[in-house]
Specification:
Length: about 290
């Protein structure tokens, strides 16, 4: 098992500094989410050969591993021009993963929930072009259900991943999306176990309070998916159930700390998360 840091809150710092911070805290690895100078959100990668050399050197000097790279592209977009652009961006991102020696990439299904059938058709169209490249390069692809994607529920996402039927394609369970994914966190992890390869760890408040007004979003009827990735203990995720389920299924994949809420205390938050994750994986009980 690897405990990785998603360094999104440190994205403005040089790679060398990011790697030093993660290594000093004790992380095994980094899960590289979008950052402007490497692979930005939804646009063509920016990294050149010099940036690849810089990143490889930072990893080598600190002894850090690059557990995974997380690109986000509109590869399931109902708009065909947008989908084709996303496939081109994916191809460059895959090449960058090869260049930096990373053998795992993870991403979201993307698409539109209000055009779910069309988005899924576009997803399969993109995958038919990209999966042979992942296979040729020996890169694993792990997929995550996400709020506002064409698939937002755990059961449907697991079924789709299993339907791809490739040993190189797995599933990411994201704890801060728990209340979009379903209701029983332990049952969802059990359900995902055959294809579960990564978990994202951060806390979240339950947006579906019984009053319906835990958060007020205007205008009324907005389809916005409201959530934030918090430190463990600042939300309502049942961590005893979450980590208990991981231990029960013998999970041995990538565990990523992915807090985004506290950029002013990014290092402190990253340290707190590492200590809590390490404690929980060893079988300690959660602290509310």
């Amino acid at each position: 098992m690897k405990i990785a840091l998603d360094p999104y809150m440190l994205r403005d710092r040089p790679f060398a500094e990011v790697c030093r911070i993660a290594a000093d805290i004790g992380y095994d690895a980094i899960e590289l989410s979008p950052r402007p100078d490497f692979i930005p959100f939804f646009t063509h990668p920016r990294a050149d050969r010099a940036k690849v050399v810089e990143f490889r050197a930072a990893l080598s000097e600190t002894g850090m591993e690059l557990a995974s790279i997380l690109p986000l592209y509109r590869w399931s977009s109902p708009d065909e021009d947008e989908r084709q652009a996303a496939v081109r961006y994916w191809k460059r991102a895959i090449q960058l993963a090869v260049d930096v020696g990373c053998t795992v990439m993870n991403s979201e299904f993307n698409g539109r929930p209000d055009q779910a059938a069309q988005s899924e058709a576009q997803f399969w169209r993109s995958l038919e072009e990209l999966l042979p490249i992942f296979e040729r390069e020996g890169i694993r692809l792990n997929l995550e259900a996400h709020p506002d994607d064409f698939i937002e529920r755990n059961r449907e996402a697991v079924d789709l991943v299993r339907g791809i039927d490739s040993p190189l394609v797995g599933y990411v369970f994201c704890a801060p999306h728990t209340y979009y994914l379903g209701d029983d966190i332990a049952a969802m992890i059990d359900d995902a176990a055959p294809v579960l390869a990564q978990v994202h760890v951060a806390d979240v408040l339950n947006h579906r309070a019984s009053s319906g007004l835990r958060y007020i979003v205007n205008p009324p009827g907005s389809t916005a998916r409201v959530h934030q990735h918090l430190d463990i203990g600042q939300g309502e995720v049942d961590w005893d159930a979450f980590f208990g389920a991981l231990r029960r299924i013998g999970f041995d994949g990538i565990v990523t700390s992915c807090v985004f809420a506290w950029e002013e205390r990014a290092v402190e938050s990253s340290r707190l998360m590492f200590e809590r994750i390490q404690h929980e994986l060893r079988g300690g009980s959660s602290v509310a």
